[in-house]
Structure formats: C-alpha cells, structure tokens
Design goal:
The protein has helices at 41-46, 96-104, 128-135, 172-180, 187-196, 233-241, and strands at 24-27, 31-37, 62-67, 73-83, 86-92, 113-116, 121-127, 146-149, 152-160, 163-171, 247-254, 263-266, 269-282, 295-302, 310-312, 319-322. It is built from six helices and 16 strands. It is of the alpha+beta class. The strands form three sheets. A six-stranded antiparallel beta barrel has the order 11-14-13-12-15-16. It has two domains: 20-185, Probable tRNA modification gtpase trme, domain 1 (Gyrase A, domain 2), CATH 3.30.1360; 204-322, Elongation Factor Tu (Ef-tu), domain 3, CATH 2.40.30.
Length: 336
C-alpha cells in the first residue's frame, strides 16, 4: 500500500508504540448503553438496523449501523443479547440521546421499552496479559463472541497489534469490583487501539456523513445483506452490488493534533476535500498533553487520493501518513 507521501519526498519513519506490554482495566465512560426490552425488541431492532437482530444468539455480539433514509449512518452500534427479549446497544455517548429519541418515534404499538441504561449498566475495557490471566477459561477467544462473567457479559474484541481486548458489560457495582482486580489502564492506550483497530465509531461530528461501505463497516460484519428492509437499505445495497464505493476508511498518523470531523485534503487537488476524519486518538508515550502532540486517526478517504500527499484541514495543515489496517480492503473497488 502507498504510504501517502509524494514519491520525491524523503520518508519519515513514524515510531508507533508497542501495545503488547499494556494491560489492565478501564471504565469506558465515552460509550453509552441503550436497553431495548420487551417481546417485540428483536423484531423492532431488526427492522431499524443493518444487522440480523432476530437471528442473533446470546453468545454473539454484532456490529450494526442505524442509517437515515439516504443510507447515511446516524449511529454505529454493538448489539448484545444478555437474555431473551432484551438487548444492550453500545454506542457513542454523545450520539445516544438523539438516537433514543429517534428510535422511540417508530416504536408505535410495538411491545418494547427503549431507555438510556448508562447509569445502571457499565462498560469496562479489559486488555493484555493481566486481563487474560484474570479471566482464564472465562475469556471468549473468538472476535465478537460473548460469555457470562462476574454478573455481566464479556465480549471479545478483535486483537490489535498482538494485543487481546474485551468489553465487560454489566451492573455498575460489579464493574467497580472488576476494575479493582486489575491494574488501572491509561485511557489513551485503549483509545489508540480503538482507532488503529479500523473499527469506526460514529461521533457527534460525523453523524449523517457516511454510507457504511465508505468506512469499511460491511467488511467488519456491520451489514447483513440477506436480511429484510431497514432505513436506507436500498442505498446501502446499491453501493454494494453496483460497485459504487469510491471511498474507504484508512488508518493514518500525524505528528500534530487533528480533530474528528475535520476534512482531509490532497495536494493533488487542494480545492476539494478528499475525505473526512472519523476518529482520533493521541499516540501514547509522546509525553505531551492530549491535543498537543502526535496522534493516529481513522479517516474516510477517496480511493483516488489515498496515494497522494494528504493533510488535515487544508494543504497547509498537519501531514497525514497512511498506516496499516488490520484487515484487507477489497481489490475490486473502483478508485476512478
């Protein structure tokens, strides 16, 4: 893959941290939890999300998109089924209030209750060898597999740079006890691995910006093309089967701070945006305060521009160097 630099420009090597020595637990306060409960919960969510919720077993978490009628993502979610007739939907905490309000408009006579459960159900991130040792046989081994543990549910996340990670979701009192059993994990370490994992999160600044394929959401299991209709389904299906995806998400690195929602520009066409930054995390170990030093980003970029010199904000802004996704992009995408 081209690294995004001009062919005549000397290569500047970017020193990325080694996360294999990291480990511990962290209360993830930047994510919220919607609870959907009732006999119609699965049917209702199945008709609203890009995922097969009706067929979801309790042993598997699933990524899902909630889209507008134009197929643009209003939220990214992880759906978990703690018991029959009950689902937990993990999403960005700033996006959550508007999502609950919008979904509630379509409940009508369906027998379910939607609520923000973030005050009673907590989310903990577990990472590394210390978490692996504590969990032992309780730790799910396959990505997105779930297992009951400590009054809650463990969800295995995809490994990133040789590092194992899990979500634990459950009662807030039990979350405090679980965090007490492990070293405290610095938030910047978890956030950085989130970004370089290539799993995008829709934040407030990027609501209604992307069709799922533009940010690789179907490549990581977030879209089921065999299920029935949901808002925006025709647009998402057309993008898939007509091969019209000309934008993809890429991991990039910057030596200067940038922001989610910031436009990306290419030196080849400085007057037109070449993409949009989805998520940002400071690079751990820089010794600088957040927002002052190097960072890594997940950004949506035109395929035709990814081999060009890229910058955040304008061609006079911070240089963005293309890094490595942990999964392959399709070779059939049309970059014209």
């Amino acid at each position: 893959m081209h690294d995004g630099r001009d062919d005549n420009e000397p290569m500047t090597e970017i020193q990325l941290p080694d996360p294999t020595t990291w480990g511990g637990a962290l209360l993830l306060s930047d994510l919220g939890i919607i609870q959907a409960e009732g006999p119609d919960a699965a049917t209702f969510l199945h008709g609203q999300l890009s995922q097969d919720v009706k067929g979801q077993p309790g042993t598997e978490a699933r990524l899902a998109a909630y889209c507008s009628a134009k197929g643009r993502m209003l939220a990214s979610l992880l759906t978990i089924k703690p018991q029959d007739e009950q689902f937990w939907l993990l999403t960005d905490k700033q996006v959550l209030p508007g999502l609950v309000k919008r979904l509630s408009m379509f409940v009508l006579r369906s027998k379910l209750k939607l609520s923000d459960a973030s005050d009673t159900i907590s989310l903990v991130g577990l990472m590394g060898s210390s978490a692996t040792a504590l969990l032992g046989d309780a730790a799910p081994l396959e990505a997105w597999q779930t297992q009951v543990h400590a009054q809650g549910l463990l969800v295995k996340l995809p490994d990133v740079l040789g590092t194992s990670r899990w979500y634990w979701v459950g009662p807030s009192a039990a979350a405090a006890a679980l965090c007490g059993d492990l070293p405290a994990l610095p938030p910047e370490q978890w956030r950085w691995l989130d970004v370089v994992s290539g799993v995008p999160r829709i934040e407030a600044s990027t609501v209604d910006q992307f069709v799922p394929q533009m940010i690789n959401f179907e490549l990581i299991g977030g879209v089921n093309f065999k299920k029935g209709c949901y808002p925006g389904q025709e647009v998402v299906a057309r993008s898939q089967y007509r091969g019209t995806t000309k934008r993809r998400a890429f991991v990039l690195h910057s030596e200067l701070p940038v922001q989610p929602g910031q436009e990306v520009f290419s030196e080849a066409d400085p007057g037109q945006p070449a993409g949009l930054i989805i998520n940002v995390a400071p690079r751990p170990g820089s010794g600088l305060a957040e927002g002052e030093g190097p960072c890594s980003v997940l950004a949506e970029i035109k395929l035709a521009s990814v081999a060009k010199a890229l910058f955040a904000g304008s061609v006079d802004g911070p240089r963005l160097t293309v890094g490595q996704l942990p999964y392959a992009l399709p070779q059939t995408d049309d970059a014209a």
